[in-house]
Amino acid sequence: MTLRPSYPAPSATHAGRRLLPRAALPTLLATAVLAGCGSAPQHDKSGLAIPQNRLLKEDRGANGGSTPLENDGVNAFLWRGALDTLSFMPFSSADAVAGVILTDWYTPPATKDERFKITCFILSRSLRSDALRVSVFRQVYENSQWVDTPVAANTVSDITARILTRARQLRTDSGQH
Questions:
Q1: Nearest-CA neighbor of 95 among 74, 114, 112, 77?
Q2: Better-scored residue on pLDDT, 56 or 37
Q3: Checking CA distances to 65, which of 3, 10, 20, 119 falls within 20 to 30 Å?
Q4: CB-based contacts of 165: which residues, under 8 Å, 6+ apart?
């Protein structure tokens, strides 16, 4: 008894047509998939491709929730106000959709033996103080190591007030009251 392969031989024909060689199939599939990915870039008069910044189409800006992205996101004025207020510190992470800003450690120029880190959470689309949660962390350099120490009692409320003030200013400047 002779066993036959379950697949047709390379020289086999199907309905009178010759099948593609197996090596050509992955190339054909890759070409078909890539052909369906987006459109060709547009070119200017000199022949250079015109840049397409897709982020501009999704950018919230400071328009207070008028774009579709903001319907599920956070208040754009609070987001921009928090970024502007905390911009003196290096950012470790900033997520506009989740409304989370994490700074890296910042050492004020006047003091080399202390450093600060801030986390800011924007919790809602409302332009109110309870839509913001700010945490400030402070460390002091003692005995060749950084030691956690409490911040001044008014530090968090001062930063929160500055973020809210900046957010309200942005809202006023945009013409939305």
A1: 74
A2: 37
A3: 119
A4: 81
pTM: 0.59
Token pair of 28, please? 């054909």
Sign of the torsion angle spanned by Cα atoms 153, 158, 159, 161: positive
Segment holding 63, helix H or strand E: none
User: What is the CA 118 to chain-centroid distance, rounded?
Assistant: 18
Q: Do 109 and 102 contact (CB within 8 A), yes or no?
A: no
Token pair, residue 89, equals 């510190």
pLDDT digits (tens, 9 = 90+) for 157-177: 999 999 999 999 999 998 876
> End-to-end CA distance of the chain, in Å?
88
List Cα–Cα distances, 36 to 30, 32, 40, 47, in angstroms: 10, 7, 10, 23
Q: In degrees, to the nearest 5, what angle opens at C-alpha 70 toward C-alphas 68 and 72?
A: 95
3-state DSSP: the chain helix, strand, coil percent, rounded to 5? 30, 25, 45
**How far apart, in whole angstroms, are the C-alpha atoms of residue 37 and residue 46?**
25
